[in-house]
Specification:
153 residues; alpha/beta; Rossmann fold; 5 helices; elongated
Amino acid sequence: MSNVTEKLTKKFLSDVLDTEDCNNISIISSKDLSSLVLFLKDRSLKEVFIQPRVGEDINIQADLYVFMDDVDSSISDIGKVKNLLSQKIIYIFSNNNKLNENDLLKLGFQKEFEYSKVGISFYTYNLKTYNNKREWNNPKGWANPENFNKFRW
């Protein structure tokens, strides 16, 4: 991990951990993450899991999953984590990923920021903020509610 990428990752993780209630974190990466683990040790985390990839046997539920920029994940890998293992995900996207940015947007991720000098972008998914309740999304806000049960269409 380059120094710039490492600093950005630590800063972004620090911001997320300050705002979210996370007891454990799972990181998907095959890099040497010793400095990141030391950084996370100072946080109030109970457990940190590091896995080289998302596979068939992955079953660790965590408050936060982080996909590092060296991981080549598929849409189904991210979907498995999103639907079964965690409600909060950070995906560090680099130009070398086989996914494209539209794939992440289709899965409900939001682009937080991009650092074009090193070619990485940070995307997040949080189930709590993904689909905010809308005032109009109720029976009273539907088209012609005054005609309900009056006419048969």
